[in-house]
Amino acid sequence: MFSAALANNNKADLFISLHANASMRPSTTGLTIFCAAFDKDAAQTASAGGTERLPTFGGGSRDIEMVPWDLAQTRHLDRSEAFAGLVEQQFRDRVPLAARAIDRAQLRVLESANMPAVLIELGYLTNTEQAKLLGSDGFQTTVVQAIYEAVVRFRDSISPAGTR
Predict the structure, then answer these.
(1) Between 20 and 30 A from 118 (CA), which of 2, 66, 90, 158?
(2) How many CB atoms are located within 10 Å of the residue 77 CB?
(3) Facing residues of 36 across strands?
(4) What are the distances in angstroms from CA 88 to CA 56, 98, 106, 157, 163?
(5) Against a cut of 0.70, is the pTM above it?
(6) Inter-axis angle of helices 137-158 and 77-91, to 10 degrees?
(7) Kind plus residue range of the DSSP H or E element containing 85
(8) Distance between CA atoms of 66 and 156, rounded to whole angstroms?
(9) Is the separation of the CB atoms in 68 and 134 below 8 Å?
(10) What is the DSSP letter of 112?
(11) Beta-carbon contacts of residue 84 (< 8 Å; ≥ 6 apart)
(12) d(CA 103, CA 107)
């Protein structure tokens, strides 16, 4: 997927994909934060990975751990889930959340992200009230502020003091 490839190629530290949802039931509402889900076989394939010896500039060679692109996220699931928890904390009491605010799903946009990654469904365009809310300046400002605060808290949780 292009967006994950862009993040991977630029060595991003975090991948956040923002979306607006839809449902056949117009009453469905709420923000949901998704982490990638993999079937058991995919996780085992990724962990088996293997190494390959590749040449380096200036001569010599080194071992490189090989992981299929569509399984890159498997090594970051714990940190992705930790980040999802921080995002949910920042959204709580600020925006309408789904009954299950954090969920896992097999989403292509997350599978190949080689860094902690979440997908945020901000709400439902098929819900008239929520569609209006999603388009409002106040909601959008609240979303940006909550995500910013979650990113800062995540950075602070993984960075040793004094290295920021």
Answers:
(1) 66
(2) 19
(3) 105
(4) 43, 11, 20, 16, 26
(5) yes
(6) 140
(7) helix 77-91
(8) 30
(9) no
(10) T
(11) 33, 34, 35, 102, 118
(12) 11
Q: Which of 79, 64, 80, 83 is nearest to 151 (CA)?
A: 83
DSSP, residue by residue, 34-70: EEE---HHHHHHHHH--EEEEE-TTS-EEEEE---GG
- Residue ranges and CATH numbers for the domains of the chain are 2-158 (3.40.630.40)
Rounded Cα–Cα distance for residues 49 and 141 (Å): 42
Number of C-alpha atoms within 13 angstroms, CB side, residue 110?
26
Q: What is the pLDDT along the chain (164 residues), one digit of tens a residue?
A: 468 888 888 889 999 999 999 999 999 999 999 999 877 555 555 455 556 666 777 777 766 554 555 667 788 889 999 999 999 999 999 999 999 999 999 888 888 888 999 999 999 999 999 999 999 999 999 999 999 999 999 999 987 665 55
Tokens representing 76? 């970051």
111-149 burial string, b = 16+ CB within 10 Å, else e? Answer: bbbbbbbbbbbbbbebbeebeebbeeeebeebbeebbeb
Classified as helix, coil or strand, 126 is coil
